[in-house]
Amino acid sequence: MAEAHQAVAFQFTVTREGIDLQLSHQALTEIYLSGVRSWKKRIIGLKNSVITGVYPASPSSWLFVVIAILATMYTRSDPSMGLIAKIQEHLPVRYCHCETCQTLVSAVLFSTMLWLLLIFTMRMCLKKLLSYHRWMFEKHGKMSNTTKVWALVRIFSGRKPLLYSYQGSLPNLPVPAIKDTVKRHLESVRPLMDDRQYEHMTKLAAEFESSLGNRLQWYLKLKALWSTNYVSDWWEEYVYLRGRGPIMVNSNYFGMDFMYVTPTPIQAARAGNSLHAFFLYRRKLNKEELKPVSLNRIPGTVIPLCSAQCERLFNTTRIPGEETDTVQHWQDSDYIAVYHRGRYFRLRVYQAGRLLSPREIEFQIQRILDDPSPPSKGEAKLGALTAGDRIPWAKARVKYFSSGVNKRSLDCIEKASFFVSLDDDEDGVTADDPASLDSYAKSLLHGKCYDRWFDKSFTIIYFKNGKMGINAEHSWADAPVVSHLWQHALSTDCFQLGYNAEGHCKGEVDSSLPRPQKLNWEIPPECEEQISQSLAVAQALAGDVDLHVFSFQDFGKGKVKKCRVSPDAFIQMALQLAYYRDQRRFCLTYEASMTRLFREGRTETVRSCSNESSAFIRALEGGEVRPWKLRLFHEAAEKHQHLYRLAMTGAGIDRHLFCLYVMSRYLGVESPFLKEVQSEPWRLSTSQSPMHVEMFDLVNHPEYVSCGGGFGPVADDGYGVSYSVLGENILSFNIACKLSCTDTSAHAFGAQIRKALRDLLQLLIPNQTEFKTEEKRPEAKKDL
User: Fold this and answer.
1) Nearest CA-CA partner of 130 in 612, 648, 577
2) What element of type H or E holds 766?
3) Which residue ranges run through the membrane (predicted)?
4) Phi and psi of 332, rounded to 5°?
5) Active site residue ranges
6) What tens digit of pLDDT does each residue of 570-626 get?
7) Which of 425, 428, 494 is nearest to 257 (CA)?
8) How far is CA 641 from its chain centroid?
């Protein structure tokens, strides 16, 4: 228990002579250095708040304005047109008797007010410019005069913005007109309904638009005026936090390691480098020094995206409640929580005020791996509580974890920077077993249902053979934010930190580091019974997941773009074709789009199944002539891009209808139209996992690619598909469905996707040569 004694600053013993007080010099030093680190962080935060608060101006511009005003006054001119004299008249004379001093103070006050007015004007101009989105809808090379004027956004964007510099200038998400949303909804469901069903839906929509819709819209506009974003708070609460079923599989998602490269086979070494990289990222995040190129800007432009989701990336946990969960965020944490062989550990990553080196973190991780202590009674499968239903976990948390040693240990996990799981299994990609990708993905999605802490903002998993992965909770942010962190860590691990010849982290280690602290628990039999029940629920859910992952190397976005087609539209058309061939019908299709052009924006739905896409697929399957099929394909692809742009610019369908439905529930009124809309199942749910190509050299090192990430099935009888565009030549797909549904199969749908991709390219390029029949590792052009 030596590490427990080091955790307190003093000990005392009561003797006959009195109290013998023993101060711990090491603990006091740690407390002092921790305080210094905390104050440094506060000072940096204060400095960044000032810089962000005056953006797009800079603090130094205040001095420029003051000097300019004083210089003008020196020439006996009055730039204030009498305002400085007015200010001077109202200055308290008792504090400033000298007339020159009064004039100087008045001039400085006027200069400050003028400076603030200029900042306000610049910010309003920038906000107005950022509210203009018609540039998205214009064809390349055809820029309107309005868009040319809009290009002034570069002038008002300032220089070297910090991560949150644009937050105050981003526009609020607009509320679409009822008639526009209803019209787009009816258009989107037309290919899914016969004439009788469509006539019924049209009648419901007309009744809603002419009566209840206007009342709900009025309240929604009132909310939009009052709140920063009329969607995001309800979306987080009602879509995520109020869900009472398991978040494992149903909500959490995962990200994968490199497909063909394992930087080191040593588990502790891989953890040492990557954990150090995560904390380097957090340091940049706290200082707002993250480069905005791919995180908070539209790639290739200066158009900023909202960065609000980054605030809860670290030190965040989802807390269960009986009616609704909450997301709890702490300002700082200097340790991580680690799980290994049924034990939980607290591992400090800061020593004497400094971040441990990769070699030192490896040394500490190895200590945990070598620790022979058994788990406490009931500890081994404790994490199953976070994998099962939320209400039993909420009740158990209040009953068994509200006091004593259990509360202290649970607090340690929940307040950690993030969670780490050290697996005893080997996982990843093996050359002679293509199915290894599937088992690897399932391990990242749910593991053994008790060896992850699914409530943490994210969990990093390290396998015995050096592979790793990430599992992220969904309520606090969306995948692009986690993806940026994950790929930054992968890039830093391999291309900046590296390993020595033996596969260990570089550098020296201080063997006097205090050992990781094992957490203690006192789990009563009643709690163990609840753990077993939650585990049974989670295992049944995990056992029903059919997951298939594959990389498609016949061609990539490079060849598609040469055909002047959007890669995303091409893939979406392939998914529509694959689903039609698999199910012989069309379905309501969900594609996630972001609305981060607006303040606190999250996502919107692109309904990829359209009249144009269904007409094209019918023509393709019906054997129509090639010119006609080509024309319909381009119309469908262009329609998809138009829908995507509408979703990005706040003119989507589903978030507006969702908020109208929530408002109707608050008002206690029922709408048959909204009820039917909300009951429509998404049998094909899709999302593109972003690839931050600027972090990797895929030209010289194409083997450093990942299969992106994935998520569980959304509908009981549907598919969840996550795909990634990896460089110019590779596409990857993660397909999920349920084994209990006899009409779906992840492998069969994967085969249909491969065939659809090839058929579409064959349509665009008729003389396409024979495609590859097997996947193989890409060769590097030169050594790393």
Assistant:
1) 648
2) none
3) 50-74, 104-126
4) -155, 155
5) 474
6) 999 999 999 999 999 999 999 999 999 999 999 999 999 999 999 999 999 998 999
7) 428
8) 23
